């Protein structure tokens, strides 16, 4: 047997010990060490990245879910962060949800992955936070370490004791990493989410121009009301370090 064939047989058995035979000439006791090592590493990475999701499963069902991922998904990187992203992709693209899974499986997995993503994302360019009094004076930009997210479940309320039903209304969040490198979330209403999403799409916009973009989208408010509300909201987020000086 060629080395490449042995290598493939080794990998196939590690991923699917029940369905694939042990490579020829290798003792089961030796393979058992590798089977346990590889799976436990992946299981540990996934469990660390998705702690709330894990808490909603029995130990047996959680291990079965991770085993299914380990067996069926082709990971292209051994790094912890990449394995977490691969697990999310697997759930979104390949996994068939069962009665053992929470109804909000995909949204919760995404929310927890975003927390990890923001916690570890490197900044390519050093950002300068805006002061609240600069909101009216400076071109505005949302920090690269901030994301506006919309889900059909109140993510921050999910626990072993509370599993909300999926439905309306939409639940909007701003997740961001602060100056102490802690990831924080703010539950926001749909109007605030629209304001921040518009800002995210128009980095460098001035406050008055930003408000003008909102006027046709929110006909129930006049320009003065929108200006007052937008200024107050953005000043609050400036104190959190979410607004930064625009850089070309």
Structure commentary:
This protein has 248 residues and is mainly alpha-helical. It has two domains: 3-101, DNA polymerase, domain 1, CATH 1.10.150; 124-245, Alpha-Beta Complex (Outer Surface Protein A, domain 3). 49% of the residues lie in helices and 10% in strands. The chain has helices at residues 3-15, 28-49, 51-55, 59-72, 80-93, 105-120, 190-201, 207-214, 223-239; strands at residues 140-142, 146-151, 171-177, 183-188, 243-245. The strands form two sheets. The protein has a three-stranded antiparallel beta sheet. Strands 1-5 form a two-stranded antiparallel sheet. Helix 1 crosses helix 2 (28-49), helix 5 (80-93) runs antiparallel to helix 6 and helix 7 packs across helix 8 (207-214). The longest helix has 22 residues, at 28-49. The chain is elongated. It starts with a helix and ends with a strand. The mean pLDDT is 88. This is DNA-binding domain-containing protein. Pfam families: DUF2063 (PF09836), NGO1945_C (PF22106).
Short description:
This protein is mainly α.
Percent helix, as a range, is 40-55%
CATH architecture of the largest domain: Alpha-Beta Complex
Structural class: mainly alpha
Order of helices and strands: HHHHHHEEEEHHHE
The CATH topology of the largest domain is given as Outer Surface Protein A, domain 3
What is the CATH C level class of the largest domain, in words? Answer: Alpha Beta
Domain NGO1945-like C-terminal: 143-237
Domain Putative DNA-binding: 5-91
Pfam family, one: NGO1945_C
Organism: Rheinheimera baltica
